Amino acid sequence: KVADVPGLPEGVADHLESGGIEELYPPQAEAVEAGVAEGESLVASVPTASGKTLVAELAMLSAVERGGKALYIVPLRALAGEKATEFEEFEQFGFSVGVSTGNYEDDGSRLSGNDIIVATSEKVDSLVRNGAGWIDDLSCVVADEVHLVDDDHRGPTLEVTLAKLRQRVQDLQVVALSATVGNADEIAEWLDAELVDSTWRPIDLRTGVHYGQGVHYDDGTQEELATGGSDSQTAAIVEDTLQDGGSTLVFVNSRRNAEAAARRLADVTKQGISDDDRQRLREVADEIRGVSDTETSDDLADAVEKGAAFHHAGLAREHRELVEDAFRERAIKVVSATPTLAAGVNTPSRRVVVRDWQRYDGTAGGMQPLSVLEVHQMFGRAGRPGRDPYGEAVLLANNHDELEELFDRYIYAEPEPVRSKLAAEPALRTHVLAAVATGFTTTEDALHEFLGETLYATQTDDPGRLKRVTKDVLAYLERNGFVEREDGTLRATSTGHLVSQLYVDPMSAATLVDGLRAAERGETASSGRQRASGDPEEAGFQTAGEMQETDSEADSDADGEGASPTPFGLFHLVSRTPDMYELYLRSGDREQYTELAYEREDELLGSAPREEEAAFEDWLSALKTAKLLEDWASELDEDRIAERYGVGPGDIRGKVETAEWLLHAAERLAGDLDDVESAAAVREARKRVEYGVREELLDLAGVRDVGRKRARRLYNAGIESRADLRNAEKSLVLGAVRGREKTAERILENVGHPDPEMDAVSADADAAAAAE
Ligand code: ADP
Q1: 251 φ, ψ to 5°?
Q2: Measured from the CB, is residue 25 less than 6 Å from ligand 1?
Q3: Quick one: residue 488, left, alpha or beta (phi over 0 = left, psi -120 to 50 = alpha)?
Q4: What is each CA distance from 612 to 463, 539, 552, 587, in whole angstroms?
Q5: Do 94 and 81 sit in the same domain of this protein?
Q6: Ligand 1 pocket check for 50: Cβ under 6 Å
Q7: String of b and e for 480-494 (b: at least 16 CB within 10 Å)?
Q8: Which protein residue's CA is at the shortest distance from atom 17 of ligand 1?
Q9: If you ran DSSP here, which 8-state letter would residue 313 be given?
Q10: Do residue 89 and residue 173 come from a single domain?
Q11: For ligand 1, atom 10, which residue shows the shortest CA distance?
């Protein structure tokens, strides 16, 4: 019984009971018996939706009650807010909850008043680096989805963060929550933790494969679907589920596929919608359209009106939340989703269809099967306890061979073991510098000792490997002037400290520093090309066929006189760093961007790789990204950008945010180099990206509630600066915000207008039209 859990603060058990949680689920009971509410470390490897969150809550609440703070580490920034909201229900018992997101360079001192803190592992790592004092007050840390230590990109940070926290805080309770994996015992061994390894689920799950007219289940039964008219397997399953009053979650392998599937499935769902649902769906669709007026937003709203939706990481957060809520309420009958976010979001459904069990993998060069772990996590979303009699999860087979293959591959198979990815160089580069910069380790031996505390060390049978890579990494950091060594003592240089605090990959920092130095010397792709060949007409990065006259401006910059870097040059510089996620070159791009490189060569900092070099491809992809950023900072519509580069609005935002952050790092590094001129140029480029505007709008777009579109309309109406806006005629402002009085008032108030209140007379349509 919840009431029997030791160490819980007064009132919590009653509160949980009134919320319908009276008895612990068996894995929860096991966790309590293992001492999770009494400070014991624990690894809980249990299926999705089996109540891991409650285990975390029992641990955190009892830990705070004993004294100290609790930290909850989420795998995705998008989940931090959601988790914090869940924990806020305990604020009534005197616990305060804080979320740490965004700004990488703060030390999170604002959080020191909170009892429960939610953050991503990247954020926690950065807080430790920036010396957040409250880290020492932690008594409990929870790592959600700890199986993600297996992830190539983000796994090492989680792994190192946990190792660091454990070394820094004595007797720290670590609670690691994991999906069912093949080697939970190894994770427990690494963390010196008790283990709960269970396959128990609160609701029965049947798994199977759809083939022909019906589903073949794991218990040997077969079931015909109650539909005939549907033209695809997925549609048939959705229709059958609908007839039974249930909802379906369909997993596909790309955003585009998610959108296309929602469009098609909307034709199935639209037939069986009740009047109440129709009303509700219309409201949700309106809210979706209100978030932004992009094509994605429209497509989503159109599908939602018919009872279907798509869900992927390219959607705006507000869109995702609207979809999740309406699906949980059962107004939306089917959601087609990419697995990225759906794995962490609590959106159970009567049926789950894993439509695509392969996805494109650029590194492996083709379609690759999903892991058993991933497919089982998707399966786990089937069935809503208390609402559905059971859950069903199915894969789709096209022929009999595939039917058997899918059974072997996913239905009968055990999930893979989790393997550390720490020995990869970018990860070690970052973490070794951080360990030295924070004074955490000051000798190479101590560094090896610390790395010996990681999961990697627990798992590897080649202990020499980590040592070797670490040596290479240290050499790299010394060569770039981030770390120095004196009598065997390692110390970070001032630049090294800065790089670690900025939370960029040291290789990104090295690229930025090189680019800024090149700018100081006036070295650009054009000068590099001329110097390399001794003749401007000879090959640089362009082929003979693409030769053009060098214009006079490029000549003047090529003399070695340092000119201030342009925004485009800086966008290209930040896009070349390993921290910027690359845009791929599509067919035809190579030619187009090679030409662009030639046209703008006098702006591109440092020398360009030759066209036959392998690095040229990356350099050109960076140019494509730079062009996207320039388009954004030239006020091109998001829809047009999305179309031009084949990306979603969420991707544009992602790139923009990353560019902002890297430009911020570049600005600080320029300061470190005492390069005042470049620092000013970088600041301006950063603002252009931040607001997404041309230079002349920088002043206006910085006003709260203005934004890029309104700033442009104000400017066109003759209001060109904040000063103009402060003295502006209200009718003009009203026109720029398309007649929205409240918004106009807010803007005027934000800019300090002496009399922001609108009078009704000025709100007439004529004035608005005139301003347009
Ligand atoms: P997981 O984190 O394992 O995916 P959750 O913690 O989100 O799963 O739990 C899934 C659902 O089960 C939640 O809605 C939660 O309120 C409910 N739940 C958890 N524990 C219990 C319990 N002991 N009794 C009843 N419901 C529970």
Answers
A1: -95, 125
A2: yes
A3: left
A4: 39, 10, 27, 17
A5: yes
A6: yes
A7: bebbeeeeeebebbe
A8: 51
A9: T
A10: yes
A11: 49
**From the CA of 590, how far away is ligand 1's center (Å)?**
51
Are 265 and 403 in a shared domain?
A: yes
Q: Give the Å distance between the CA of 59 and the centre of ligand 1.
A: 15
Which residue, judged by its Cα, is nearest atom 16 of ligand 1? 51
Does the CB atom of residue 54 touch ligand 1 within 6 A?
yes
Domain at 191, CATH number? 3.40.50.300
- The verdict on residue 733 lying in a domain is yes
pLDDT at 208 over 90: yes
In the chain, the percentage of residues whose pLDDT exceeds 90 is: 60
pLDDT(581) > 80: no
- Token pair, residue 258, equals 């998610």
Do 377 and 445 belong to one domain? Answer: no
For residues 350 and 365, give the distance between their C-alpha atoms in angstroms, rounded to a whole number. 35
Q: Is the pLDDT of residue 271 over 50?
A: yes
> Is 347 close to ligand 1, i.e. is its CB under 6 Å away?
no
HEC string of 532-586? HHCCCCCCCCCCHHHCCCCCHHHHHHCCCCCCCCCHHHHHHHHHCCCCCCCCCCC
**Cα dihedral angle (364, 369, 372, 377), rounded to 10 degrees?**
100
53 CB within 6 A, ligand 1? yes
Q: Is 72 in the pocket of ligand 1 (CB under 6 A)?
A: no
Check whether residue 516 and residue 588 sit in a common domain. Answer: yes
Domain that holds residue 401: 205-411
What is the Å distance from ligand 1's center to 49 Cα? 6
Q: Is residue 374 part of a domain?
A: yes
Question: Vertex 522, ends 575 and 505: CA angle to 5°?
Answer: 30
Beta-strand relationship, 358-361 and 366-369: antiparallel
Q: Are 721 and 755 in contact (CB under 8 A)?
A: no
- The answer, yes or no, to whether residue 534 has pLDDT greater than 60, is no
Q: How far apart are CA 148 and CA 585, in angstroms?
A: 29
How many angstroms from the chain centroid is the CA of residue 262?
A: 23
Residues 113 and 46 in one domain: yes
Residue 537 tokens, joined? 């007409």
Same domain, 78 and 61: yes
With 0-12 CB in 10 A as exposed, 13-18 as middle and 19+ as buried, what is 439? exposed
Q: Whose alpha carbon is nearest atom 13 of ligand 1?
A: 51
Pocket test residue of 8, 23, 54 for ligand 1, highest count of atoms within 8 A of CB: 54
Query: Which atom of ligand 1 has the smallest separation from the CA of 20?
Result: 25
Alpha-carbon dihedral angle through residues 423, 425, 426, 427, given to the nearest 10 degrees: 20
Please tell me the distance from the alpha carbon of residue 282 to that of residue 294, in angstroms, as a whole number: 18
Higher pLDDT pick, 577 / 465: 577
Rounded mean pLDDT, 552-574: 71
Residue 764 scores a pLDDT above 70: no
Does 180 contact ligand 1 (Cβ within 6 A)?
no
Instruction: Please indicate, yes or no, whether residues 536 and 452 belong to a single structural domain of this protein.
Output: no
Chain-centroid distance of CA 611 in Å reads 33
The best mutation among 2, 12, 16, 21 to test binding of ligand 1, ranked by most ligand atoms within 8 Å of the C-beta, falls on: 21
Residue 712 belongs to a domain: yes
- Nearest CA to 341 out of 161, 77, 526, 165 is that of 77
CA–centroid distance, 396 to ligand 1, in Å, is 29
